[in-house]
Amino acid sequence: MRQLNGGIFHKLNITNPNYKCTAGELREKINNTEYSSNIMNIFARLRGTQVYWSRVRNDINCMMYEYGLVTWFITFSPGEWINELITADPVSSSIYIYHTFKATLAYILSPDNPIAHVAHYYYTCEFQGRSMPHYHCLFWIKDAPIYGTSTNQEVSEFTLRYVTCRIPNRKTSPELYRRVMNYQQHKHNSYCMRSKKTSTGITKNCRFRFPRPITETLVLRSIETSIANRRKQKRKNRFYDLPRGKEEYATNDYMPSLLILWEGNMDAQYISESSLVISKYISKYGTKGEKGSSEVDISDIQSNKSLVSRLWSFALRVLNHRECGALEAACTLLNIPLHETDRKTRVR
């Protein structure tokens, strides 16, 4: 409520209640969604809202402008085994997940350089429908090769040095084998399968592009080819495909040095290409806001009330329509940060 009160106070200080406009000006502002976007600014300090994440997205774009291309995009998701613990004690579970992620991040930033020398980083924490936290991490690597500037061989060697989709040997690496088989194998469900009407009928395709193509070497594609294939919903629409055998068609890309620490699913992608198309898409993907907040019906809010009363009525109605799981509520009460950057970076 304190953050909401601050947002309303800020809105009242930049809004002139005596301002009058013509009917034409009002129609133009409504058609341009100016009013709806302006009123949502009262939630700028409220964690998880769209306007909250829009500021974070601007910070990431500033870092891209200042530091250059992002090298790695890595996502960490806790394993499903923790569901029983969450039900029993969501507060302790949220603390455990957060400190586990921070320990993994500390190892990434250590002198061991498990993903190469990290110059800068930024991470965001997203809570999806299951209320499980997903950590989306961007890493700027010092002297990393750039697709479109460096040679394809340099890009391939750098990527293959850290990322793989191979199923490890069960006898020589039993723990890594267990984690790859438990957490890195994709299984189709109603969320990932999309229907498309074609000339031959309705076909279903996985939004995560599984099964992945079988190839003996790393295959790089231009951004234009990837975008064109994605629009046509073709399988070969990724920026690159790792070497993959028949038994690894459903294995998600991972970094062995990190998966051995993280008890859960991870996804690792090389995204350093000169056009910035992938980097900008990733910045939007990692800072998605809540849906539906701006679709709340406010037609019955009395117009004869003061501006501050109407703002509070609208804000409380939006809050009542928000979905919040046990882990997200615990993280909010514990003030666990939803985003963070390195100490060398300060965005003003």
Please describe what this structure looks like.
- With 348 residues, this protein is of the alpha+beta class.
- 39% of the residues lie in helices and 15% in strands.
- It contains 13 helices and nine strands.
- It has helices spanning 2-14, 23-31, 34-39, 50-67, 83-88, 90-108, 152-162, 174-183, 223-231, 256-259, 277-285, 307-320, 326-333; strands at 72-78, 118-127, 133-141, 193-198, 201-206, 219-220, 240-241, 264-270, 339-341.
- The strands form three sheets. The chain has a five-stranded antiparallel sheet with strand order 8-1-3-2-9, with helices on both faces.
- A hairpin with a 2-residue loop joins β4 and β5 (201-206).
- α4 packs antiparallel against α11 and α6 packs across α13.
- The longest helix is centred in the N-terminal third of the chain and has 19 residues, at 90-108.
- The relative contact order is 0.18.
- This is Helitron helicase-like domain-containing protein.
- InterPro entries: Helitron_helicase-like.
- Residues 25-138 form the Helitron helicase-like domain.
